[in-house]
C-alpha cells in the first residue's frame, strides 16, 4: 500500500518504448508521477524513490540485483522467468501481463493452421520452381487441436478456433471442465493425448515442471501428419529431439516462435531443419495500450488492497 495518502505515487517505467507508456499512463492516471527510461544508469537513479515499477523484466532485473525493491512490479511480459532466479528477492508483489495476448496469439495460431491446411509454403516453393501445383487444400473442420497450456491465453486461442469446427483438447496443471475444450486433462496425460492431435500447440510457461517435456519419446508418439507449434517457451523442447523427429518423418512440420537461446545462434540445427519455420519470438507482442489498461486496473486493486490480476506465486513460478 502507498506510504502516504497525499503524496503522488511515483512509478518507474523501464521499457524500450518508455515514452509511449508514459504518455498513455499520463492520459489514464494523471495523478501519478512518472520516471521513465531504458538506460540502466537512469533507471538505477530512479528506482529507490519509486514504489511501483512497470516494465521489461530484463531491464528491471539489474535493479533487483543492486538491492532496490518495489512494493509492486508489473511486468510488461507474460513470461517473468528472469525475475524468478533464486538469488533475487521475493518480498514484493509481482504481476505478469495477463488478459492482453489472447487475440493476437489466436491470430498467430490460426494463421499457421490455415497455412498448413492450404499448403501455402508448398505452393510458394512450386512457384519459385515455375511448377504448376494444383493440389487440393484441406479444411480445418474435424481436425483435432491439442493446446498444451490451457490458461488465460490457451483458453482464448480455443475460443477463437472453436467456430472453425475444430475438436479441442487441452492440457492444464490439473483436469477441469473448460468449454469449448472437449476435455482438459493434467500434464501427466500428455503422452496419451499427443497421438490424437493433428496440431500440437505448446503455450506452457517456463516452470521446473514444463522443461524438456517435448523429448524423443513424446515426438515419437505424435502423428506423422501432425504440425507442432511452439509459442510458449523454448526450454519446453529438447532441440535435437525435434530436429530428429522432423528428419525421421515423425512430424509433418514445426513452427517455432521461441527458442532456448535468443537470438538463435548461427549454426543451430533449427536453421536448416526440414519443414521447420522460425518466427523470431513475434507471436504475441505486447500492446502498450492494453498493458497500460491492465496496469491502471491493477493499480486500483493495489490501492484498495484487493487481489491483483496476474499475481505471481514465486514458488510455483507463474
TrEMBL record:
Quote the Pfam families the UniProt record gives: 2-Hacid_dh_C (PF02826)
| Sequence ranges assigned to domain D-isomer specific 2-hydroxyacid dehydrogenase NAD-binding in this UniProt record | 112-282
Q: Which Gene3D superfamilies match?
A: NAD(P)-binding Rossmann-like Domain
SUPFAM superfamilies per UniProt: NAD(P)-binding Rossmann-fold domains (SSF51735)
**GO MF:** NAD binding; oxidoreductase activity
Origin organism is Pseudomonas peli
What is the designated name of this protein? Phosphoglycerate dehydrogenase
Give me the segments passing through the membrane.
none
Q: Which InterPro entries does this one have?
A: D-isomer_DH_NAD-bd (IPR006140), NAD(P)-bd_dom_sf (IPR036291)
Q: Which UniProt keywords apply?
A: NAD, Oxidoreductase
